[in-house]
Structures are given as C-alpha cells and as structure tokens.
Amino acid sequence: xxxxxxxxxxxxxxxxxxxxxxxxxxxxxxxxxxxxxxxxxxxxxxxxxxxxxxxxxxxxxxxxxxxxxxxxxxxxxxxxxxxxxxxxxxxxxxxxxxxxxxxxxxxxxxxxxxxxxxxxxxxxxxxxxxxxxxxxxxxxxxxxxxxxxxxxxxxxxxxxxxxxxxxxxxxxxxxxxxxxxxxxxxxxxxxxxxxxxxxxxxxxxxxxxxxxxxxxxxxxxxxxxxxxxxxxxxxxxxxxxxxxxxxxxxxxxxxxxxxxxxxxxxxxxxxxxxxxxxxxxxxxxxxxxxxxxxxxxxxxxxxxxxxxxxxxxxxxxxxxxxxxxxxxxxxxxxxxxxxxxxxxxxxxxxxxxxxxxxxxxxxxxxxxxxxxxxxxxxxxxxxxxxxxxx
Length: 390
Description:
Blueprint: H1 5-10, H2 54-66, E1 71-75, H3 78-85, E2 94-98, H4 103-113, E3 119-123, E4 138-144, H5 156-165, E5 169-173, H6 178-181, E6 191-195, E7 209-213, H7 216-229, H8 235-245, H9 248-266, E8 272-276, H10 286-292, E9 299-304, H11 307-316, E10 321-322, E11 332-334, H12 346-352, E12 358-362, H13 368-387
Parallel strand pairs: 2-3, 2-4, 4-5, 5-6, 10-11
Antiparallel strand pairs: 1-7, 6-7, 8-9, 9-12, 11-12
Helix pairs in contact: 2-8, 11-13
C-alpha cells in the first residue's frame, strides 16, 4: 500500500523494526569515522564514513523516496553537490543553463567549470527556443524552476522531450518548491538538485546538499565520485536534516498559506511596483505550475519604487530578518544585489531583472497577522522617512 507524503517524511518502511537501532524513535547519529570488520571478507556493510555512514544513508533513502528516485546522495552543502555533479562532464562539453540561477551556481559555472574546459549557453529557458542552442558538444540542460530570484517557470516535461531527443541530461534544481510541491524526476528530469539547507532542513541550523536520480548509470557514477571527492554529509548534519524533514509537509503548507496573504498585502502597497509570485494568475508560468507542481511555494520577489525604499525596509525589519537564505521557519528578506547575486556581473543581473530595488522574501511559518503587522509598520515608517507621509 502506498503511503502518503507526510508519512514518508517520518517513516521509512525498510528501516522499521531495525534491530541495530534498539527501537530508537529518532534515528541515531553514528558519529564514527571508521568501522571494524568481524573478519576478512565479512563486512558490516560500512567501511569508512567518507564512503557511507548509517545516518547519512538514512537521510539519503528518505530524500530519494520523497523525490521518487532510486538513490540520493547527501553533501556538505548544496554547492558541494553541484560541484561534484559537474564532474560528470569533460573538457569540451557544452551545457545549456538558465540565465536566472542562484548566484553561487553562476559563480561556479563561470569561474570554475569554464576554467576546466566546459562551455555554457546562458539563456531564458522558460521562453527561448532551447533546442536551437543544442550543438554536437552539448551534454546537459540545467534549470531552476521557479528560478532564483525572478520566479521564472519552465515546463519540465517539455524540456525533457528536447533533452531525450538529443540524448542530453536534464538537471533540475528543486530547492524552491521541495519534493512536497514538485517532483522533477516524474516529469522527465534525470537529476534533481537540492540545497538541503533550505526547506528540507527547514530550521536555518545546518548546511546540506542532495543529488537525486532515477538512473542506475548516474547513481553508480555519483557513488564513485562522492567517495573520491569526499564531500559527503556529516552524521550530525544528516540527523538534523532527518529531523527537519519530519515536518516538511506541514511547514510547506503553512509557509505557502502565509505567502498568499503577504502577496495580497503587498499588492495594495503603492511603493511596490511589482509582485512576482507563481501563485498569482497573472504570472506567466501560472498554468505550467498548476500542471507540474502541487503548490506554488513560499518565495516572493518584489520590485520597489527605489533603491532607497528597499534599503530602508532592510534596516527597519526586526522580527522579519534581513538575512541571506530561505526555506526556514523564520521569514527572511534578502537583497540579491549584495547577497545571493553579488558576484554576478551587474549587466547580467539587470538583464535578468535584478535591480537595486529588488527584494526576495522567504515566508516563514509565524502567525501571518504578525508578519503583516510588521510589514505595515516598516512600510509606513519608510514612507514617512522618504516622503514625509505616514
């Protein structure tokens, strides 16, 4: 019998009744670097924690189950996951990547992968003719959907058809929606990327990254690479992600409900010139989202009337935190220009729509009345300071 998503977050069927854990309800932290063997050729199944660790194995199985993959690999950070993934490619290979990506991914591609002989076409995958950029050296397409921070939505199934036609890998960063709202492998992707630091962990207390696949050849290559490069997730961090995942479903639902209320409030503000949220019917990707996802998430991007207004908000928030991250229980406001996309050239930021008056909001699970009350106060004080009106 198939179990529901929230049950899968808490119970992994194959480890129920596992005698190794002495009946522990919370999966144990196996804080060990190495493992003793009963004899030559007689292994416990674990050799060295760079290769695998029981706690990491458990969180990997959970993430693989939630994404409907055959395997997941846990890494020390999301960027460590993407960095190792790039070892699938050789000098001379070409990748098509979305132009609007997390700044750290752009930095990796432009300053490390290019140095290693890999070339890129940065395009707007949600609206351009992706197939026209495929050449004899193209090996993969890499996207986020929705993108960070401009919330562009790409049709994963349609892109998968192009990828399969040309025998390319389709790689999807699913961090913004989490497996609760979207499962790219089910839509034709070959690899799913997660910054586990965000919604999977959910409490802003640890770093993690994951790669998930439903292909045996990719799984085998990843397993070889992770033991070789050594960026596997540590036991305690694995346990923190396991703990966070237990409440993933209820956190995502609450954060999304709060996001809808905040979006409605933001739309009434004269200083807000644009609200970008894929749950709005006027969002260009709204119909695609309804088709390929089970929700719209809790990430909002706004454009304000001026840089000064944006900076004033960042200086005045208190309960809401001005911080660089997303996906935790706390509501955070990020300034992409100097935080997530600081290393992206200004002309690229502006082409993508990121200006000095752009703010990104990760909506948490606080009482939404308190969030709206703080925003109301902050906007009013900013209006008074800048325009002399309350």
